[in-house]
Amino acid sequence: DYGLREADPDVRAIIDKEKQRQFRSLELIASENFTSRAVMEAVGSCLTNKYSEGLPGKRYYGGNEYIDELETLCQERALAAFSLDGKQWGVNVQPLSGSPANFAVYTAVLKPHDRIMGLDLPHGGHLSHGFMTPKRRVSGTSIYFESMPYRLDESTGILDYEMLEKTANLFRPKLIIAGASAYPRDFDYPRLRKITDAVGAFLMMDMAHISGLVAASVLANPFEHCDIVTTTTHKSLRGPRGGMIFFKKDPVLGTALESAINNAVFPGLQGGPHNHTIGGLAVCLKHAKSPEFKAYQNQVVSNCRALASRLMELGYKLVSGGSDNHLVLVDLRPLGIDGARVEKILDMASITLNKNSVPGDKSAIVPGGIRIGSPAMTTRGFTEKEFVAVADFINEGVQITLEAKKSVSSSKLQDFMKVVTAPDFDLKDKVLD
Ligand code: PLP
Questions:
Q1: Where is the Serine hydroxymethyltransferase-like domain (predicted)?
Q2: Are 185 and 160 within 8 A, CB to CB?
Q3: Global confidence as pTM
């Protein structure tokens, strides 16, 4: 039984290169993070070998006594991480990732072609919330369900609750989906609940991006107002790549919602759960109850505010004029450049972020903005001071992009890259193994 270096040097070499890339670069993708060594140990363990279709105590395979113990522990920790009472909320920790978790909810509470409303993708929503273009139903969600997206108020960059209310009253959706992939503000859950109740729909919150911030009570609590809450586990929560679905144990609905969701995950959409992921998730959820985790999430938000302030000081226009959470969305259109070019130039200097559409964009292929997130570099030990420097680097990259567009010399780019890739450039590697 050989280790990877002996058994497969090719794959080992690729992993080593990726590790170096992660180590070297400023990771600013808002949906990424560095999980802990302990989580990675669980993910890389013998748990991957075991089949355990079903739920704890009700499996379709033998030999599951320890897997039952693990999944039960993971469920308990998931409820504890969000301070939920097991009599009022249940959780399924088996979804393979965020999109499958969302689709499981849809198949649990909807019939094919029932109506849904989620935030439009060009306004910050996620594909799995029902994205479609005028020409094409892009996401499976929009193929199997009838989707009417809601949007931001383009003048403020804030969710247009009034328009959502009007549209919901006309469209009469069966499910309203809150949550986003690129929205720098928190959600008004009481208002969303009121809109949802008026049309007799379910309210689901997809807190994938912000679940770490919610666990640390840095943002509003969706559980007080929603029927269902889904999340990925690998973004601000800092766990392994996976998904969870929380469902309300409603006195009126009884166990109907619980059974529908559990059955939608298995046997509806999945087979055997990824027990190695559930092991890693249990480790991450234990950490989510620690004072260090709360301090980390507070730092994520402070860092993002420092980044936002510095960018605004430098004259940048931010969608919604700032940020309440872990990300900022910069509108580059006033400068006459697009996000794709800036992403590329910054990538050359090992600054990793992503191009993103901003409200009012004409094309999603050449979007007018960039999305910048603070969770990953906060894990690496960055504080406000470093995030001010990050804003300055991004600014340099944008200036170089502007110059490159005017075909002025590329020597500035070389200088810039020399600074950010120099060995003494302090990346504070705290977590990477
Ligand atoms: N929901 C939201 C809000 C997301 O931002 C994402 C991914 O970025 C997902 C769901 C999908 O997660 P996954 O990529 O794990 O399917």
A1: 4-394
A2: no
A3: 0.93
Indicate if ligand 1 lies below 6 Å from the C-beta of 324. no
Is 53 catalytic? The answer is yes
The Cα 308–Cα 328 span in angstroms is 7
Q: How far apart are CA 249 and CA 258, in angstroms?
A: 7
Ligand 1 mean position to 72 CA, how many Å? 25
CA atoms within 13 A on the CB side of 44: 9
Residue with tokens 């994520």: 300
**Residue type at position 202:** F
User: How far, CA to CA in Å, does 305 sit from each of 313, 318, 340?
Assistant: 12, 12, 24
The count of other CB atoms within 10 Å of the CB of residue 29 is 16
For this structure, is 232 an active site residue? yes
Q: Calculate how far, in angstroms, residue 289's C-alpha sits from the geometric centre of ligand 1.
A: 23
Which residue has 């005028």 as its token pair?
134
Residue 99 Cα to ligand 1 midpoint, Å, equals 6
Residue 277 Cβ < 6 Å to ligand 1? no
* H-assigned helices in 314-383: 339-348, 375-379
